[in-house]
């Protein structure tokens, strides 16, 4: 079993090039880690700890989550998990007031 590299609330940078199989995925931006696949299914076996769901800012300024980002496609930007969790909770409740905080999700477009 491999140790998980990223954790809920951390801010990561998504690589510019995700490869041909993921060219339709959002890339080249910052995102907040929602969790690994293993976290989300409450697995204790460590199954798929290298695949993550992220909170991303979409082209139209809205936010959404997307899964299946691989560990090798992500780079840690900030370990401030408290701030990240605040953002995840706001998103969960439909509050996107945090979007103006460019220190947390940089502009891609």
Q: How would you characterize this protein structure?
A:
It is a single chain. With 109 residues, this protein is α+β, with helices and mostly antiparallel strands. The chain has one domain. It contains 2 helices and 5 strands, in the order ββαβββα. It has helices at residues 37-40, 81-92; strands at residues 11-14, 30-36, 51-57, 63-70, 74-78. Strands 4-3-2-1-5 form a 5-stranded antiparallel beta sheet. The protein is globular, with a radius of gyration of 13 Å.
So how many helices?
2
Shape: globular
Strand content: 25-35%
Mean pLDDT: 81
Intertermini distance: 38 Å
Structural class of the secondary structure composition?
alpha+beta
Could you give the order of strands across the largest sheet?
A: 4-3-2-1-5
Extract low-pLDDT stretches. none
Q: Give Rg in angstroms.
A: 13 Å
SSE order:
EEHEEEH
Report helical residue fraction.
10-25%
Biggest β-sheet: count, sense, barrel?
5 strands, antiparallel
Number of domains: 1
Quick one: how many beta strands?
5
Attribute tags:
109 residues; single chain; five-stranded antiparallel beta sheet; alpha+beta
Structural topology:
Blueprint lengths: L10 E4 L15 E7 H4 L10 E7 L5 E8 L3 E5 L2 H12 L17
Short note summarizing the structure:
By secondary structure, the chain is of the alpha+beta class.
């Amino acid at each position: 079993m491999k140790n998980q590299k990223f954790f809920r609330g951390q801010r990561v940078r998504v690589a510019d090039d995700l490869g041909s199989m993921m060219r339709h995925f959002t890339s080249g931006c910052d995102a907040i880690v929602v969790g690994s696949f293993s976290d989300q299914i409450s697995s204790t076996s460590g199954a798929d700890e290298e695949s993550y769901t992220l909170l991303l800012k979409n082209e139209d300024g809205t936010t959404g989550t997307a899964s299946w980002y691989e560990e090798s496609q992500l780079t840690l930007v900030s370990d401030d998990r408290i701030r990240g969790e605040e953002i995840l909770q706001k998103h969960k409740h439909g509050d996107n007031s945090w979007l103006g905080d460019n220190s947390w999700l940089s502009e891609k477009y």
